[in-house]
Structures are given as structure tokens and as C-alpha cells.
Amino acid sequence: MKSEKNRVNRRSFLKTGGLAVGGMCGLSDAFTFCSDPRLEAKEMADAEAGILKTPKFLRAKPVWAAGREKEMNVSLLFSVSIEIKNGQKIGACILRMTGATIAMIKINGELAGYGPARGPHGWFRIDEWPIERFLKTGKNEITIEVAGYNCNSYYHLDQPSFLQAEIVDSAGNVLAATDVPAKSDSTAIFTASDLTGVRLQKVQRFSFQRPFIEVYDKTVSEKKVSSLARQPEVKYLPRRVPYPELTLIEPVAWLKTGTIAPRKMPVPPWRNRSLVSVGPKLKGYPMKDLDLVLSDKIQQLETRFDEKASSKKTGSVYQAGDVQIVDLGADYAGFFDLKAESLEQGTELVITFDEILDENGDVNFLRFGTCSAIQWTMPKTKIFSALAFEPHVGRYLKIHCLKGSFKLLHCGMREYAYPKTKNASFSASDSRLEKLFNAAVLTFRMNTLDVFMDCPHRERAGWLCDSFFTARSAFDLTGNTKAEQAFFENYRLPDHFEFLPDGMLPMCYPADHNDGVFIPNWSLWFIAELDEYARRSSDRAGIEGLRTKIEKLMKFFEQYENSDGLLEKLPSWIFVEWSEANKFVRDVNYPSNMLYAFALDAAGRIYGKKNWREKAVNLRKKIIEQAWDGTFFIDNAKRSKDGKLQITNNRSEVCQYFAFFFKTATPVSHPELWKRLLNEFGPDRIKKGIWPEIHKANAFVGNVLRLELLSQADRSEQLLKESVAYNEYMADRTGTLWENDDTHASCNHGFASHLCHVLYRDVLGIADVDPIAGKLKIRFQKFGHLDWAEGTRPVPGGIVRIRWEKKNGKLIYSLTAPDRYQTEIENTSGLEIDPY
Q: Full-prediction pTM beyond 0.90?
């Protein structure tokens, strides 16, 4: 049956009426859609444009220990007691807070919050944590533990430490606040204790990308801060993004037990740059000054596992030398949470963790450049709470008793992730696809909190390029652009980015790049994402606010254009993907120029720059002229000593995908290559010995781009098979999707959540949602082995619900969507379609 396009109003074929769905869209947590489409459009535009009031502090002042606001790795504990009288109504009580670097809130000993959300240099986002459910009649103890890192990283900014917090009831009464104590205060003021010594200050970094590890000595008493000082006032921003639910995750299995014994330090020992390269460009404490080198201590321990099945679990006693591996069931992100009865003074509890088990079935805590370990020294006590302060990632947790003994009372994790996407669902007659969807959702949630992160473990960084793909997932799974607006806002507000050339955007942000390293072509992915953001968001003010930065970025690139208009000898780190393609980036890198042409065209369209669009046309012509060898596109050309540009023979799979994805080539302009890629490439190409000279693509980003090409070619059945081949083994092993096609790096990488976008679009049939124009496109495709699929997807204004199934030679479907959307249905299934 030929493709048919029917522009239909949803009411013409649905049995059910329009969904009267009130919903939140964009950026207003109080935004509800109304019935008048004109008012609805205005409210939606206001919400998406960021017209969300920044909370204001009523009483609290920013404070820190006097003279220590720039000291590295200082932890303070702010405490206050609140009395709730019997029958006293406090309503929707909130704890409003911001600060630097990061803070953990506990109420009556229970974890109640963690933040604030990250903002750009010089701006601080205000969190407002609802806390009424934690409060009880009588005395309530509220603590805010703050770590002031003052350390450059890809995770947190290197900014002076402070806390500004207040507790406010529903009537606007301030129940407690931070300030320098004064006799005239009628408001309860937080007191501060110094945790130096309790949390060891001079410890190693967790990784090159993240600040300090955690080593605790709870046999040491905290000390009262002798003098608090007010800190300078700062500029504020709203949080914008939802609050995590901090759900408790319990183990699904208690695996190996064993014992540890001393051994000689491995030769060579692990000496990551985070440990040995500390200096002005990478802040931290030099190795010679550390109170403890935890990575060395654990490296000098050998584990001998028992042959018998594990008998230890919660309630078991661990003696010195005992170890236990625990399985949380999937690769979750959060705060490791253990409770124990310490049976001896000075008992040492150490945990190590990782996303996978190594070839020996053990936890390799150093696997990809991290010191994934925490140590607690415990006093003798009935209940000791070993709750990690920093969020970490792991499916597997290894418990060590290094000294003394303890009885394990509880073991688990407090999840720290995007709230569960309850209105997003997918299932199909092939259960493997639902498995992949769930893995993509979990990957999204672990990597989307306050920014789009690359991974929640080694870095927790807001990387460009990764964000292009995660942003698609975010819109599909949440129905809004809250996280994406915060992401762009972080880039928009700073006047400049220290350590980087004028006009260049940081490769990840918020972050400090003291070493001056940047990825110039990553800034072009920023424009590619901005192009799509302009179509799914009404944030015109935010997009316009980036105009000057985009203009400066284009000026930066102009100085590297050669006589052909191609970018040549770009500075710093040029990155294409994690494959051999990254070795072919000098001097003229054609994939980067393909991306440059796409960015020029997109930016020209967004900002009305005709000359940029014309340049893109000429650039694409020149790329084809030089890089096309008649069979494949070549990756790079080098400048010889006599000044001539010499084309190499370097050809990568990902270069071909760049050509089509970024529109340098089209199926019409290069039909033979198009067919060759579709028919001869894929997951098994190398095994089959097909085109072995074309260097294989990797998960990040070639394999993802390949699926986009298959979608464009209507190869729906092939797309499903390759999606399974590329991703199922990842989902089976960690419940998440990975950075690479093997385990040597992150096994929980945000960009890979893009697979949910593929399944929604190419299987369920939700081909496009245009909230600006109010249009919804449904596209039913041809599948040989699928009998049915169904799911729900949140959209601005409500929820799209769809189910299709093959029945009696027809494709029968049901579809409901918010009234504001005009629906177009395209049928390429080869079957006659009919609504239920």
C-alpha cells in the first residue's frame, strides 16, 4: 500500500473525547493549561520563556567560618532546633537554600534534600525543599552539612564557600535562618560546627574531573565554629528543574564473601593524574601532604573469596578481614547508605563500588580513573549511620571490615536522580524493546538532574554533544524543556569563560578549565542543540540572549578558515568520537567541517544571518570536492612542508555518518554510499570482514548516528534489529546504556538514553511533536516481526497515548492527545489503517 498522508483533526476518528489534562509545561511549577487556546498559548510561552520568579530570602544571610571561605575541602555542619507544638499548623513548610559548594539536608536524622542545583559562575540557584513530611510534633533537629571544596573540577565550580538557608512556613513566617548570631534575633539562627577531622580534609581527589573523596573518622568530635562571618551577597536564579525523590534502593542479591590479607603494592601502582598532577591547573592537596592515600591502602589488600555461597547479609557480623559483594540490581546513582552496630572502638568500614564486576568477579574500584572508595572509622555504638555525602554510581558494592568488628544493620542506596517519569511508557510484542526502553529511561534519569550530564560517576559534567542527544530524551520523557533551559541559561549568563580563548564555549559547563583545554568542534554541537531547542521551546528570550555568544563563536572560527573556507589546524582537543577517527583530526578534519557547515546553516536560520547560510552551502561543496574519493568520505587532509594540502587515505565509519547526518551528503547526491551504508554496514560488519579498511564506529557517537540514518531511510525492521544488537547486552549487564561498546569507560552515559527517542519515533509512531505550532505527527511503519506496540508520552499540555496492533490484515490503532494539537497521520506500514 502506498504511503498516505491524512491531515485529520483528532476528534474525527477518536471514540473518546479530548483529554482534559492539566499539566506542567516548560518552566512554571504552577502552570496549568486553560481552555482558551489563545490564553493557553500565552501562558505556555511565558512559562517556556523562563518567566518564573526567582525566590527571595526573607531573613537568611550568606555565612561561613570566618577567614576560611577559600580553603579547600572544608566541611561545616549547620544545625537548628524547631519546636512544633501540638496542634500547631505550619502548612507547606520549605527549606530555602543556596550556597557553595554542595549541601546535604537532614531532618531528625533522615535525608531530606541535597543541593543546590548548579548554576553558572557568579550565579547561584535557590532550592526550596518541601520538608513538612519530615517534621513531627515536638522538637525537630535540622542539619545542613556543607562541603566547601574550593577546587576546580568538571562537576562543581571553584567558588568561595557559603551557606544561605532559611525555613519558612506556609504563612511566610521564618522559623530559622543562617546569619551571624545577634542578641536581638527573634528568629532561630543556625549554629555551625567544624567537621575538619571528622571528614578528613587532606585527601585525594575522586577523579581528574571531580573533587575530593570521603574519609571519615567518627571517633573524633566536631568542634564549634568560633566565628561565623557574613559573606558577600550573590546573584540568584530559580532552580528550574524538579527535585529528586531520594528513593531507597535495596540490594537484590548478596554475592561473594571472602577475606582480605596484606600484599605488596602492585608494580606499577595506580597513579592517576588526579593523584600525581595536582598543582595550579588541577587543585588539590599534593600526595606527600595527604592524611591518607586511600587508593594505596586498598591496593595493598588481596581478596580471597570463599568457595561456598554467601551467607552474610543484613544482620551478619563482620570481623576484621571480612568482605562481601552486594548487588543493587542495576547501575544506580545516589548516596550509599549503610547502618551498622559498631562492636569495637575504632572499627574501620570501607566500601568500594563500580558499575560492573571484573573478570575475577570482583569490584575494581580504580577501573576508569576514579578512586571509588569511602572509609569510615567508627566509635563503639549501637547504631552508626554511614551515609555517603557525595552521589556515586554502582551496581556492585563491596563491603570491607578492615579493623575491629561490626554488625551490619542496613545496606542500600538513596537514589539521586531525575524523578520517575511516570507518564512515559513503552511496550511491544518484542519484550526486548521494552527492556531497551527501560534501560534508556534509567540512563536518562541517572544523568539528568540539574544539567545534562555525560555520566553520573567519573565526571557528573554537563558536556556538550552528549547534551544534544539527552535533550531529545528529556523532551520525550518529561514533556518539557526545564532541564534544557537551565543548561542553556548556564552558558548564557557569564560575561566570559576564564582560561578559554575569546568567543569559545566550554566543552562542559558549569566547570573550571584551568588547564585551558577545550574542544572547539564541541561548541558546534551547542548550536545544533540550540536549533532543535528553538523548535521545542518558546524560550525566545533565552535564544536571543545567546546571539552575542554565537556571533563571537563564529568570529573565533573565522580565524581558522583556510583559503578554501575549511577549518584547519583548530587548537586544543579536537574530538569526533571514541574510535580511530580521533586520530585523524589534523590538519583539516572533514567531520568537523561537516558539523561546522551544519552549525553555520542552523545559526544563520535562527538569527537571520544570510551570509552564514551561504557560507554553509559553499563549505559543503568544498568538503565534497576534497573529501569524496568516489567510494567513501575521507576523514582528513594534512598540510605538507611546501604548503600543499594533501588528502590522506584515512576513512572512518563515523565520518560517513557525519556526512549524512549533517547534510553534507544526501541519499540523492550520494546514492551508492547511502545504499552501501544501509546494506553493508552495521553491528556485524567487522566480523564478516566487510570493508575492514573503514575504521569501525563506536557507541559514542557513530552507532547512534547510524540509527538516525536507518530511521531516515524507513528501515524500521533493520533499525530494531540493530538497536537490539548494539544495546541489549548493555541493558542485560547493568540495566543502563554505555559510553563505549565495551566496559572500559562509563556504563551509564546520558547520550545513550536517546534510544527511547528512537523507540517512541520509529516503533510507537510518535514521529514529531511541535508544541509551538500545535502539531502532532504520527507515522506507522512496516514491521515484519512486531505485532503490536503501545505507550504514553508526555507533551506540553498533557499526554499522548497510542496503541497499534496488526489484526485481520489491518493495522488497528487508538490515539488520544491534548486538544491543542492538530494531528497528521502518515502510513507506510503496508497495511490499511483503521482506528479502534
A: yes
